[in-house]
Amino acid sequence: MGMSSLFFTTFPGLTGKIIDSVTSAFFYFIVHGLFHYIIEYGASTMELLMNKPYLYTEYYAKIYSEEFNTVDCLEEALCNSYLYEHARQFKIDRKFLKELLIKQGPGYNDFVSYIGQSFYSGIRTILSQIKFCKLKSFRNDPVESLINELDPEYYLLADNIPIWLHERAEIVR
Ligand SMILES: [Zn+2]
User: Fold this and answer.
1) What is the reported pLDDT for 149?
2) 73 alpha carbon to ligand 1 midpoint, in Å?
3) Distance from the CA of 172 to the center of ligand 1, in angstroms?
4) Domain map of the chain by residue range?
5) 164 CA from centroid of ligand 1 (Å)
6) What digits encode the pLDDT tens for the residues 48-75?
7) How many angstroms separate the alpha carbon of residue 36 from the centre of ligand 1?
8) pLDDT for the residue numbered 83
9) Which of 26, 53, 66, 123 is buried deepest, with most CB atoms within 10 A?
10) How many CB atoms lie within 10 A of CB 74?
């Protein structure tokens, strides 16, 4: 409610428009979260290709959680960059959004470093963080094509979701 209220009172094109402000606030959160999902999608694809089922789990514990709310939390920077790049699609003024996002904490406000073509080098870096479970990898493989960010609808199709299939169920203790 706070975000839609902010849009309703200050954002160009949304001031005084209740339904549009609520809709734009909804997409504000959804689009940021969508890119978290897209990163996990790329991680799952790597896990399947490499036959290593815990790449994302290990990255989450040793990198994301350790660096959360610091300048090294690349995942939040990329999610905000993705949000910024798609803002016009849900009627949010990018100039105002930029001012809003810059006031957020470390990591989140580093999205400005990943606008435009830098976004793709950011994707390459985070996939290497996940692949090697290292914050600063000795190499960043050109695997950004694992993330097809140009076609968000791709991720809405159930048959495009990478999943593990096990031949035998194991007893969970
Ligand atoms: Zn986030």
Assistant:
1) 60
2) 10
3) 31
4) 2-160
5) 25
6) 889 999 999 999 999 999 999 999 999 9
7) 7
8) 93
9) 123
10) 22
